[in-house]
Write a structure and sequence with these properties.
Length: about 400
């Protein structure tokens, strides 16, 4: 969740992209879209078409399989998920769940042997995974044993996590063994190139949202909050900073309400900071919400205070619901949010800087509404349909 590191990644780095003007007055192309367009012109399948491919998926995702692998099932001939979640049910896909035995760690180990057996008893054209440890490692074993081209998907802060915890020769070696590595945006793509992954093996995979669920409210819908913050109460999301931002804005005398949707390890710290700064009348702590759409629809501006991030799903959901985002330039966020076009990108993460941007949204509702209207463009560029097109390109690259 950090900003792209400066410096060139090499003259042949096809994923190092700068925003290009559209020439239509609507603001710059996102770097993610530019990367996707570029790859569409560089990868051509030499074997079967995606509609003829049989894909084995090794996954430990719980309630996210539909969002990540539903678009794959829409384009592949056959999709089989060896999975931990016994309730996995995706149209067009077959689920092979691990028996509900023992603690999760035991089931993760069992998943490995179940994947080996499934790869042995049936023939596949490729194996797909998300997250290097352990599912990507399992995919590499299947590649080694059965010759299946292997895909690794990096989402969230996976790359940052590995880099901070135990990054070294092992993970770098593993990244280079995959036939394709998909990432949510240009920041991760550039990092992978610096790890030695060939640019031709890196693809953008849309962090898809359900645009039927996350849609703008009716024009006459009531608004309860000027600002909404959504996420885990964890160090990298920095919820305590949002409390300090609210205190800065409160000191200006403006009237507003804010909601914090989430929970986590830092909840006590958040409560203590609210009490210390005396902003309990400004912030509603509403707790965790599996589906925060109602809070988006009852708010005007989405605020993100993360110190590290990839391409936050909550930001995309909020934009699809018609909220103007106030965000820092971390991870691949600049791929999507253009300052003054479809949101406000703060120059730094100081509370006063955030507060100034939020005050701008309060003081100029016309500008805020224009930003929000432009923000809804993510409904087409980050839809499940677009994710399906990305999977077509990934499968074509696997077969190249």
């Amino acid at each position: 969740m950090s900003q792209p590191a400066p410096g060139s990644t090499g003259t042949n780095d096809a994923t190092t992209l700068e925003p290009a003007s559209t020439g239509d007055g609507k603001g710059p192309h996102t770097r993610a879209t530019a990367a996707r367009d570029q790859h569409q012109g560089t990868h051509t399948a030499t074997g079967s078409s995606p509609e003829e491919l049989r894909v084995l998926v090794v996954t430990g995702l719980a309630h996210k399989n539909e969002r990540h692998y539903g678009p794959l099932a829409d384009v592949a001939s056959e999709t089989t998920l060896v999975c931990l979640d016994p309730d996995t049910d995706i149209d067009g896909a077959t689920a092979v769940p691990v028996p509900d035995i023992g603690p999760r760690i035991v089931r993760i180990v069992f998943l490995f042997f179940l994947a080996l057996y499934e790869g042995y008893r049936n023939e596949y054209d490729a194996v797909a995974s998300i997250s290097l440890v352990p599912y990507g490692i399992y995919a590499l074993v299947l590649k080694s044993l059965y010759g299946y081209p292997a895909h690794l998907g990096i989402i969230g802060i996976d790359l940052d996590h590995h880099a901070r915890q135990w990054y070294g020769a092992g993970p770098r070696w593993a990244f280079r063994r995959f036939n394709v590595v998909s990432v949510p945006g240009s920041d991760h793509a550039e990092r992978l190139v610096r790890c030695g992954v060939a640019p031709t093996r890196i693809e953008i995979l849309t962090n898809a949202i359900d645009v039927e669920t996350y849609r703008p409210p009716d024009d006459d819908a009531e608004t309860d909050y000027e600002f909404v913050w959504v996420g885990r109460f964890s160090e990298e999301k920095d919820p305590v900073r949002f409390v300090r931002v609210v205190a800065e804005l409160d000191a200006t005398g403006r009237e507003f309400r804010a909601a914090m949707v989430g929970d986590g390890a830092l909840r006590d710290d958040v409560v203590a900071e609210i009490d210390r700064l005396g902003v309990g009348d400004r912030i509603d702590l509403v707790g965790w919400a599996d589906d925060p759409v109602s809070y988006y629809q009852r708010s005007k501006v989405f605020v993100l205070t993360s110190s590290r991030d990839a391409l936050p799903l909550v930001m995309l959901e909020a934009m699809a619901t018609g909220l103007a985002p106030v965000v820092p330039a971390v991870g691949s966020i600049p791929d999507v949010v253009g300052d003054g076009h479809n949101g406000l990108v703060v120059a730094d993460r100081e509370p006063a800087t955030f507060a100034a941007a939020m005050a701008r949204c309060l003081d100029d509702p016309d500008e805020r509404d224009a930003l929000a209207a432009n923000a809804t463009d993510v409904r087409s560029s980050f839809s499940l349909t677009q994710a399906g097109e990305d999977w077509r390109r990934i499968l074509a690259t696997l077969e190249a």
